[in-house]
Amino acid sequence: MRAGIATLILSYVLSQFYRAFLAVLTPWLEADLGASKQDLASASGWWFLAFALTQLPVGAAFDRIGPRRTTAACLAATTLGAAVFATAAGPGQIKLAMALIGLGCAPILMASYFIYARQFPAALFGTLAGMTVGIGSLGDILGSLPLAMAAEAFGWRNAIWAVAAVTAAAAAGVFLLVRDPERLETKGAGSVWTVLATPQIWPVLAMMLVCYAAPSALRGLWLGPYFHDVWGFDRAEIGWVGMAMGLGLVTGSLLIGPVGRLLGTIKWVVFGSNLIMLAAVAALWLLPFGGAMAPAVLFVLIGVFGSTFPMVTAHARGFIPAAVMGRGVTMVNLCGMITVGLAQQVTGRLHAGLEGAADPATPFLAVFGYFALTTAAGLAVYLFSRERRP
């Protein structure tokens, strides 16, 4: 079992890489393929939309055939998407590639969560989930400065071909090493509607809708264009900021589970962390800056305190029956991912509509404002949530 979980965690490193690497590759894709920022925002959005729309079928597959075959098959689709990306001749192929990659990454984290929920004590779920996201977030770091260096040294296409090969190896490893939990009888046990019929889960889902949108979208795309267009950063400097934010995501993900156990609460750790993240996003939106250092620090803070995704899942897990755990956790994940995909479509249009402004920061202020307002709305609803103690 340990080898299988380790393989899933290493596969999640790839998932985090794929959701973040566009921010660093933006200058190459603009120069080589003529891709606009709206094209790349759309491509990033298609990753999350494909990921989100695959969640419910993936959850049903977990409950019926197990996470091993489900995840291995989807990772094969990720490998195909990476190959399409490496051979792309224009923005349309980049969008197709990102959709395939998003579809293929859909089950990876949830496969781990499914195993944790079924085979470990409930009190450990948040810590194990946070550990998985923390280690997996190393992929975010690999998709920053190391990717920029590899793209400079070997070309961006060769760098992606190498990642495609690693992805194929991960698919084989999952198929050979992951062990499915004992199957439960699910006939007549309910469905995702059983979970949605529980009133207590709705405020938690409201938090899930917004907690991951800002850190993921800002790290996955807008970080690169913002620091390039507003502050004149080159590719290596963008890579450094991306790596710093990635380290923030790792740190926050590893700490939030133990902090929740120490304080004996999930709700208030989630609320407090997201409130600090909201303050950082609002500062990017509303405050004037005389240099790039303050915005860079704020991006890192968004990474650290925007790492509540696993704890929000742990909060929701308390309201999901064991027999529909696969469908339940993937439904929760759908809420977190679909809003990132939609946000990238919306913010791409907001940016494009203001791109001709005299101040190059103006289009990005609209992006930051969108994330500040939506995060504030989710926090307001989450205040009404209840906490089920393990």
How would you characterize this protein structure?
- The chain has 390 residues and is mainly alpha-helical.
- It has a single domain, classed as Growth Hormone, Chain: A (Up-down Bundle).
- The protein contains 20 helices and no strands.
- The protein has helices spanning 2-20, 22-33, 37-53, 55-65, 67-86, 91-105, 108-119, 125-136, 138-142, 145-154, 156-177, 192-196, 201-211, 213-229, 235-263, 267-286, 293-305, 309-317, 325-353, 362-382.
- Helix 1 (2-20) runs antiparallel to helix 6 and helix 5 (67-86) packs antiparallel against helix 11 (156-177).
- The chain is globular, with a radius of gyration of 20 Å.
Defining key terms:
Growth Hormone, Chain: A; mainly alpha; 0% strand; 390 residues; 20 helices; globular
Topology, element by element:
Elements: H1 2-20, H2 22-33, H3 37-53, H4 55-65, H5 67-86, H6 91-105, H7 108-119, H8 125-136, H9 138-142, H10 145-154, H11 156-177, H12 192-196, H13 201-211, H14 213-229, H15 235-263, H16 267-286, H17 293-305, H18 309-317, H19 325-353, H20 362-382
